[in-house]
ABC transporter permease/ATP binding protein (Methanoculleus marisnigri), 622 residues
Amino acid sequence: MSLAAIHTELKYALSVGRDALYRRCSATGTLRHRDLLFFASYLRPVAGLGALSLTLLLVATALRAVVPLSGKILVDNILLGSGPESLEASLQALHLGFLAPLADLAAGSVTGLVAALCGVMIAIGTIGFVQRYVAIRFQQELSFRLHTSLFDHVLRFPLSYFKKHHTGYIMARVSDDVDAVQALFAQLTFQVFTNAALLVISLAILFMLNPGLTIVIAGLCPVYALANLLFRKRVYAKAYTEREATADVKRGLQEVIAGIDLVKSFSSEDREVERFSGRLRNVFDLRLQQSILQTASGSSVSGLYFLGSLVVLWFGAEQVLHGSMTMGDFVAFFAYASMISGVAIALFTLPAAIQPTIASANRVRELFSMAPEDGVGCDQSALRRLPEVNGRLAFSDVSFSYDSQKPVLRDVSFTVNPGEMIAIRGLSGGGKTTLINLVLGYYAPQSGKITLDGTSLAALDLRWLRSNIAAVAQETFLFNDTVGNNIRYGNPGASHAEVVRAAKLAHIHDAISRLPAGYDTIVGERGAYLSEGQRQRIAIARAFLKDAPVLILDEPTSALDEETEVRICGSLRLLARGRTTIITSHRTPLLATADRVYHLEEGRLVPDEDFTAGAEGCRDRG
Ligand SMILES: Nc1ncnc2c1ncn2[C@@H]1O[C@H](COP(=O)(O)OP(=O)(O)O)[C@@H](O)[C@H]1O
Ligand SMILES: [Mg+2]
């Protein structure tokens, strides 16, 4: 084999290895570098608070680290009475000469030592208090930024994402997982820093007290780490599944509460409770398995530590007996070794302990890396906003299907000229709402083209496009807010008089006036306190107020009685004047107001000559 061939082989093997490692890392329990950097970008604005908190923490930790030295002072200097000179000498030997004045004071008597310890404890307590306050501020700020930014990002996902995933599920992913990530950066980072600092300081002091024994203790650290590493991957897998199952519980809960009318009408409360408890049991089992794994990893480290302390006890006691170590050194050494135990357990069980948090962080990252509606990598500034909308809307040979199998629209072509009103009728399930969804840019056609004033919708800024369309959806959604604010939703700056005018045109003003607080009446969740017909008319009033060049009405009168419908048709005719309007409906009075009527049947759009001719007559009379 030639050298070049070997080189190529080697490069290939390395790249395969690297890719495999990369895949393994993303699937199991580590945050990739660039993901960490991504989250770190959220830390930057609050870095000052974080740094302050960390500094205070390190100072308190350093103070805590010197406390066990008091054991040595008590034994060697006070109890065995070797005097302050030897203390100063040993402090010098430990490179802690700067502590000599304090040690002098402390070494004088037991009272002095206790007083000095009290002083140190008060200092540690005060610093700790301030540190916690700063840390909480830091944590809250971080959480606030992450939450807001994730909400902003998720709202820009395509409509299909929201259709596919349930409200409760999305809510769990937007809020619960972020809380966990915040813990990763706020609490866990601090824990790692303190424990690492404590470990380093303690090991350094130990090393000066007795290098040989310190090497034995330090040698155990990798063993702890190794024991823990064995558990990491499994905990991660469990944690990820558990998070998914928890989101599923929330999804079920939200769905049942939203559909409570149905549940009650079918007396299916028991069945729903059973389903809920089944899902909850699943989460419970996963959490239990996760805890068992974590506890096992903790126990393995504790067990190893216990062995380690026996070794220290044995070697240390032997050295004291042979006079190669002072009694005080042994006491201090043992105290440090115990402190290190706690720290080492905390530090080396951490990789397994933080797996649930890393699972959450990866889930948050997944959401952040999903493309918003207008496409990722797509230059936002390249998306067009037309300087003026005339309103010529055209479909040419548009075909569409939701699942790329069963076509919903086939080769649909039509043009609506500015100021024209067309109506589309057809059986339920025929694709009317789908056609409207395409106009609003909720979905893109698989083939064919939709244009507004000659520009393809694909090239337009979708938010701009929608701001130029007033749409009344087939299903009315109202926020749990006042009637007035619901009407004002498309035009938040509208005055009360404008709201009333729109309500009058939608023939809902009288009904609103009869409500307990008129326009200030809260409508309940999804408008629960109103009838369907009232909700529909509020939605129409909303469209009146939006005043956009394109008007789209999806079965806007389906919930109205004939009398109200006929009156609304008059208003709609008024509203549609000068606007490009598409209406879908089965209802004759509404179809009769249109300039042209189409029939949508099995995805094909054909002119409906009968209705169009009838409509001519109607309009001539009107
Ligand atoms: N989000 C969706 N995902 C998959 N299929 C859908 C979706 N929305 C509607 N459909 C299907 O598309 C077809 C047309 O639905 P739709 O446009 O709502 O009809 P219409 O408004 O005429 O009653 C139906 O067969 C329906 O099952
Ligand atoms: Mg429909």
Summary: The chain has two domains: 143-369, 393-621. Residues 8-28, 617-622 have pLDDT under 50 and may be disordered. Residues 92 and 100 are 8 Å apart (CA to CA).
